[in-house]
Amino acid sequence: MLKQPRRRTRYKSTSPVLLGGHHCRLAGVDMRLPHCPRVAAVWLVVLGLASHGLAPAAAVPTLSTALRWIVDEGGNRVKLACVNWPSHLEPMLAEGLGKQPVDAIAKDVVAMGFNCVRLTWATFMVTNASYSSLTVAQSFQRLNLTESLAAIRVNNPAVVDLKLIDAFKAVVSSLGQNGLMVILDNHVSKPGWCCGNNDGNGFFGDAYFDPDVWVDGLTKMATMFAGVPNVVGMSLRNELRGPRQNAADWYKYMQRGAEAVHAANPRVVVILSGLSFDNDLAFLNSRQVNVSFSGKVAFEVHWYGFSDGQAWRTGNANQVCARVAASVARRALYLLDQGWPVFLSEFGVDNRGGNVNDNRYYGCVAAVAADLDLDWALWTLQGSYYLREGVLGLDEVYGVLDWAWCKPRNDTALSRIHALQRPFRGPGLAEAAPYTVLFHPTTGRCVVRRSSLVQTTLELGPCGETEAWAYTASQQRLSPRDSPMLCLRAEGAGRPARLGLSCGDELARWSLISDSKLHLAVNASLSSSSSSGGGMLCLDVGDDGRSVVTNPCRCLSSDNSCDPQNQWFKLVTSTRSVAAANTMLAQLPLKLRSWKIRAF
Ligand SMILES: *[C@@H]1O[C@H](CO)[C@@H](O)[C@H](O)[C@H]1NC(C)=O
Ligand SMILES: *[C@@H]1O[C@H](CO)[C@@H](O)[C@H](O)[C@H]1NC(C)=O
Ligand SMILES: *[C@@H]1O[C@H](CO)[C@@H](O)[C@H](O)[C@H]1NC(C)=O
Ligand SMILES: *[C@@H]1O[C@H](CO)[C@@H](O)[C@H](O)[C@H]1NC(C)=O
Ligand SMILES: *[C@@H]1O[C@H](CO)[C@@H](O)[C@H](O)[C@H]1NC(C)=O
């Protein structure tokens, strides 16, 4: 993660020792929750994942690439839905081991719906004797992290006297026992918080970044994990950056690093990061990577709200989304069309919900991630750090877990990620002819149809229960695919959008407007219906936070004071089977009744 201007953070003086202990197992058989009982007990239920965490660990596949997709041995798509877990800071131990047993953390990762962890490491942990010789206890003592060490003794006694690399292996192994894939990410050379332009870890030739040492470190890690099946990928170096960065050296060293990893461990997918804090892979447009192997190379890109400064807060969100998404496409996502996987290996928001810049960015990045059905790794798992930038027990506001690693920091923020965890399409997922999903990125929910005796309503629901829509740009008509005689109609400002039979007029003609193309609108000026109120009506979410209505289109341009995101819907292509209970055929008798009752 790019070093930002220091965020306001809470210093936690509470002794980690007091908070240590096996006190908030969230999944599995042990449900004793003395310190955080109520919230923790309900959150898995809230997320609808209560049974997920209890499932036996599935065998982890060996991955390779097929055009832009990551696939298993059978050529079927495996979507990476990862969360980042740092182990590269000064102590060189995966964060949180003073808070929870490693197995409990791994089970939480599974329970939250992730299938993979991007686990970071520092080169010197394996190349520099002054670090690699240390045990966990010595590493913490060296930093005077006495309280953290005592807490690790309580929660993870087995790692305390291990060498750092053996503790790292124990973490990988625990993730594997829980069926989680791991991507080993070489994050820095010298252990510590990342990343600044001038921190000596930015580019080949920097103070701590000797290319030979780096290749040696990669080789050692690749070799050590060659026989560990759940290590499915290795990313060569996080966020290349700084005054020394240049494309010529990028090819020279990244190709060398890729060859070294592949030679030592031909099973892993080798992941290559771009320049400028992994924001820039545009140079690959003029010269491809040349390595001796194929089917095992992917690229990664990072995209944060602050990647564009405060643009989201100070600009109009539609205009900023259009501009930034086009820029990310030019810099990185264009590689998908050229047949390379692009892994969005860091993105995320301040989970407290008060960061306007992050909040507006989120809807845009989620729309892109759904549209392109990207592989990704959320920043980030950890609720806190042993030590970051000199602060003990620093609170991580981007963390999905809270400071005590007990429960999700924000259920709303976590639940909207779920829509992105399940693939929409790809090799082996052609379960249905392609259809359109009306995805609401800000909530991570999709437009579903609910029928009662008297009528059918449209509302936001789980994307797994989505209605299958057909949208034709020429006719501008949105119909349930299995009942093409019906169409989505606006019925006026503040009124529910409905399925109707009269599909020929302007109120049933939907176009994608605003620069972001995330507004789905009808032009009600042309309508003879007086109730429509005139002007452009946009699909929107009602005050109940659930019903799908239309309202006058909001903040389409210029205005930076309002947030258009409730009106943002992305038309996403899916080939996943549609839940049977949701199909028109299953609902036909009810539908017929509701047609008779409703006047069109
Ligand atoms: C080992 O680490 C020390 C302390 O950070 C550093 O000064 C030294 O350059 C490193 N040596 C190598 C060979 O990387
Ligand atoms: C650890 O504490 C000792 C004794 O107070 C002090 O001399 C040393 O500088 C401290 N080390 C660090 C890394 O803070
Ligand atoms: C790729 O690398 C190989 C081996 O170094 C070399 O022989 C070949 O000319 C290179 N191809 C291109 C297109 O640069
Ligand atoms: C959780 O995140 C949502 C969405 O950003 C936000 O509206 C809400 O205020 C956050 N809640 C808490 C408790 O942080
Ligand atoms: C909507 O229709 C009116 C009346 O024909 C027209 O003047 C207006 O330009 C249309 N608005 C848009 C955004 O297409």
TrEMBL record:
UniProt keyword annotations, A-Z: Glycosidase, Hydrolase, Membrane, Transmembrane, Transmembrane helix
GO molecular function annotation: hydrolase activity, hydrolyzing O-glycosyl compounds
Domain of life: Eukaryota
Coiled-coil segments: none
Record domain Glycoside hydrolase family: where: 98-382
Keyword Membrane belongs to the record: yes
InterPro entries: GH (IPR017853), Glyco_hydro_5 (IPR001547)
TM region(s), chain numbering: 40-60
GO BP annotations, alphabetical order: polysaccharide catabolic process
Family to which the UniProt record says this protein belongs: Belongs to the glycosyl hydrolase 5 (cellulase A) family.
PANTHER family linked: CELLULASE FAMILY PROTEIN (AFU_ORTHOLOGUE AFUA_5G14560), OS04G0481200 PROTEIN
Protein name as catalogued: Glycoside hydrolase family 5 domain-containing protein
